[in-house]
Write a structure and sequence with these properties.
By secondary structure, this protein is an alpha/beta fold. It has two domains: 187 residues, Medium-chain alcohol dehydrogenases, catalytic domain (Quinone Oxidoreductase, Chain A, domain 1), CATH 3.90.180; 116 residues, Rossmann fold, CATH 3.40.50. 26% of the residues lie in helices and 26% in strands. It contains ten helices and 15 strands. Strands 3, 4, 5, 6, 7, 14 and 15 form a seven-stranded mixed β-sheet that branches. A six-stranded parallel β-sheet has the order 10-9-8-11-12-13. Helix 5 links the parallel strand 8 and strand 9. Helix 4 crosses helix 5. The longest helix is centred in the middle third of the chain and has 12 residues. It starts with a strand and ends with a strand. Bound molecules: NADP nicotinamide-adenine-dinucleotide phosphate. NADP nicotinamide-adenine-dinucleotide phosphate binds next to helix 1, helix 4 and helix 5.
């Protein structure tokens, strides 16, 4: 099968297409013929061993992904495709079923086939969706869900989502609305209309207004792009407000030190707990018309380097899809 492989950490150019053996599914796995996948920030960060995030994070990244060289030669976590073969023990999936999901730390989705544990984060595709639409369901939304679940959102609660135009941000806006919260979204002028269209009650263009200086207070602030610190935005939190970061070693330390506080707190779940139930929850949300992954650009698998370079601009709006 064709797959995008890499044998050393480095720039996007370490990626190349190679013909390799198809994975052989184990007893408890299904083999999926991948029709669409994505390039996301987890792929790009892993490929360069998180060097942009500093030495400490880079070392931690290598401990997980392989100290000297990548443990998994194929990147890609999200996929949508058709079941090609089924483990004897499963009744959940049949050959030909249309499925989507995420392989997480196992990666392997930038390929024509991927094997997935039946109990893993894989589910039948929501009705009426194409493979390209279904591939980006999980990454942004599971990351957003992991954060938002900690904040007990419900009608009457207010949330500010910073970086509302990214994969996590666009999913976060929709999930927070589905929980009934009142959502203020912060993004660049070019994305204001989009974030309004996916449900934001209020929008702030960060090039025109600094939300930390406008006197507003929120029950929850989600930093969906890893650009804020607790120190910078704590003044914009209500007295027992919650700051939800998605990145940053400093935030992890704040999370530990504010854990038992009755006042403002940082909640940061490391490692994130994301389950098959969460994937089924997203499927139901899509079928109820409450969530739709936003797609920015589409590339062919062969153009993975170009797609990766674009993702690394950190300016994508929603998700970047690769068609296989
Ligand atoms: N995706 C994952 O698997 C994953 C997992 C864990 C943690 N994270 C972390 O979560 C963060 C976001 O991930 P993502 O995949 O959602 O990112 P993304 O899709 O690459 O985010 C890109 C968006 O962020 C906006 N942005 C960039 N700089 C901004 C700023 N200073 N203020 C406001 N918006 C800004 C960009 O819009 P403009 O530039 O046009 O404003 C763009 O629309 C990253 O820090 C990543 O390391 C990601």
């Amino acid at each position: 099968m064709r797959a995008v492989v890499y044998d050393r950490y480095g720039p996007p150019e370490v990626l190349r297409i190679e013909n390799i053996e198809r994975p052989v599914p184990a007893e408890d796995e299904v083999l999926v013929k991948v029709h669409a996948t994505t390039v996301n920030r987890f792929d790009t960060a892993t490929r360069e061993a998180n060097r942009r995030s500093g030495l400490a994070i880079s070392l931690m990244s290598r401990l997980v992904s392989g100290l000297r060289r990548p443990r998994h030669r194929i990147l890609g976590t999200e996929f949508a495709g058709e079941v090609e073969a089924v483990a004897a023990a499963t009744s959940e999936f049949s050959v030909g079923d249309r499925v989507f999901g995420t392989s997480g730390l196992r990666f392997g989705a930038h390929a024509e086939y991927i094997s997935m544990p039946v109990r893993g984060r894989i589910a039948h595709m929501p009705t009426g969706m194409s493979f390209e639409e279904a591939a980006p369901i999980c990454d942004g939304a599971l990351n957003a869900l992991t954060c938002l679940k900690q904040a007990d959102l419900h009608p009457g609660r207010t949330i500010l989502i910073y970086g509302a135009s990214g994969a996590i941000g666009t999913a976060g806006v929709q999930l927070a609305k589905s929980f009934g919260a009142e959502v203020t979204a912060v993004c660049n002028a070019k994305s204001l209309e989009l974030v309004r269209s996916i449900g934001a009650d209020r929008v702030i263009d960060y090039t025109q207004e600094d939300f930390t200086k406008n006197g507003q207070r929120y029950d929850v602030i989600l930093d969906a792009v890893g650009k804020l610190s607790f120190r910078r935005c704590r003044g914009s939190l209500a007295p027992s407000g919650i700051f939800l970061p998605t990145d940053g070693l400093g935030n992890l330390i704040w999370a530990l030190t504010t854990r038992r506080s009755k006042g403002k707190r940082v909640l940061f779940q490391i490692p994130p707990r994301q389950t098959k139930q969460d994937v089924l929850f997203l499927k139901a949300l899509i079928e109820a018309g409450k969530y739709r992954p936003v797609i920015d650009r589409r590339y062919r698998l062969e153009d993975v380097i170009e797609a990766t370079r674009y993702v690394e601009t950190e300016q994508k709006v929603g998700n970047v899809v690769l068609t296989v």
